[in-house]
């Protein structure tokens, strides 16, 4: 009997692609930082055209230290915590060294979602 579904080959190709992306931590951290920078920039654009910040912590921080300062404090803090976790994960949880590159993806994902939502809001107002 022959399995002609091709599923194992596709899964292997997909897995190779995932492994390739996850083997580039600098790229993953750069994508996380880019997402956060875009989030701050688009938030600033939205605020300048009359939209409001809905996150109470971000709103209070922007009021206290300005948009740039809030970006440095909040996004920089998130990057620092994520990076510390990325560095320490293999030490505290043995056997997870191969999974640690999921950390920058977890840090970046919320910001990429925010970039998408904020871009949609800004485009709907312009």
What attributes characterize this protein structure?
4 helices; single chain; 0% strand; mainly alpha; 126 residues; 80% helix
- Oligomeric state of this protein: single chain
* Structural class by sheet pairing and helices: mainly alpha
One letter per element, helices H and strands E, the order comes to HHHH
How much helical structure, as a percent, in the residues?
A: over 70%
Tally of helical runs: 4
What does this protein look like?
There is one protein chain. By secondary structure, the protein is an all-alpha fold. The protein has one domain (25-125). It is 80% helix and 0% strand. The protein is built from four helices and no strands. Helix 2 (25-48) runs antiparallel to helix 3 and helix 2 runs parallel beside helix 4. The radius of gyration is 19 Å and the shape is flat. The model has no long low-confidence stretch (mean pLDDT 86).
Could you give a short description of this structure?
The chain is mainly α and 126 residues long.
What is the strand and helix layout of this fold?
Elements: H1 7-22, H2 25-48, H3 56-92, H4 102-125
Helix pairs in contact: 2-3, 2-4, 3-4
